[in-house]
Input
Amino acid sequence: MGALLLNPTPAEQEFSQAFALARPGLPDAADRRQAFERFARAGLPTRRLESWHYSDLRAKLRTAPPLAGKPDDASKAFAKSELEKHARESLKLVLIDGFFSTELSDDFSGVAGVKIRALSALPSDAPILALMRDLSPSDPLLDLNAAFAQDGVVVEIAEGLRLEKPIEILALCGANGGGSRFSRNFVALGEGARASLVETRAEGVGGFGDSALFLVLGKASELDYACRAENGAPVEVQNMIARLDGQAKLRATALVAGTPFLRRQIFATCAGEGAELNLSGASLLRSKEHADATMVVTHEAPGCVSRETFKYVLADEADGVFQGKIVVPPHAQKTDGKMLCRALLLSDSASMSVKPELEIFADDVACGHGAACAKLDAAQLFYMESRGIPKVEAQGMLIEAFAAEAFDIMSDDSMRDLLKTDLTALLESGIFA
Output
């Protein structure tokens, strides 16, 4: 195995020791070894790495919690009690500490055209595993995920299928909750299929999280995807890797709140002509919370459209980060790509770092980016107060109108309503007053 850095941190040493102990019992030993060797050579990212300049993970993750094991009866009982808090109309797939639980998940046997499997049930030569390897960009946290993830859920939606109910992936903690959790989830839509997917991450008990979600959209398929990251682990990294074939449409958004240290990485590729990609998100941070949304959107085919719109609401000493890059190679003519980030600073101590990038090698394109940071409009507040609306309520209304715009990209009304309900409940708690 390749050696770690010259001066490895305790966390890097502990990951190395954990891999040495766990490797004999893990499948795909060769692929995992290669992934861990790449991580070992790079180490945990620091500010010296340009794409991690605003999120020093190496300094934040000083020690590595022990690997979470397969859930026992106590963990299943704890997760079941947590599951009761998420009662709504959806087809649920439950993960406990990164392991797929068939016991707590809904029965999909009556849902024609949808195939559900545990990642751990796939043979080592399964095409899906090879596809995930091929789609994964070079990144140390994706390598760490590939080295340690033992399970996850695989969802395959048949060609031409139109799902009426959203599928919900619920990531929950076990009874302990203080371990390092790794999961790899894969969702594929066949040609012309249409579906909605909600990922609810409620793993905030403790520990460290490193998850990866792969989305593969066949020709002319459509997917609405929403991530609800409202109760994060002390240190968490979420990866989303998406590939869109010709005329496919992906609308992906996220609501982020209650995250002490979160890095969301999005790697999206418009691989077929005429693909349309919409990415958005709303992050509401307070205290000393830190949320980093970093994405690379690559237009690999001509005539594709991409839009990125991200909103931040920052109170107290919260720290927001947005890094977005649009890459257009020479053959991707007629590309239309636009990127926008806006932030509301509710405190003089809050900070926002924005770094949009365009890497364009084609000459017939329409690409642009914009960013703005501001405080709540005093004139609007005065107008509302002068008409009898209390200041706290007026602030909440303005914040809600600002943040909720990020969810308007959803074509599924139930998904949009779910996110807006979450947002309203968050603001009604008064923590952003």
Remarks:
- DSSP finds nine helices and 19 strands in the chain.
- The chain has a mean pLDDT of 93.
- Residues 78 and 175 are 5 Å apart (CA to CA).
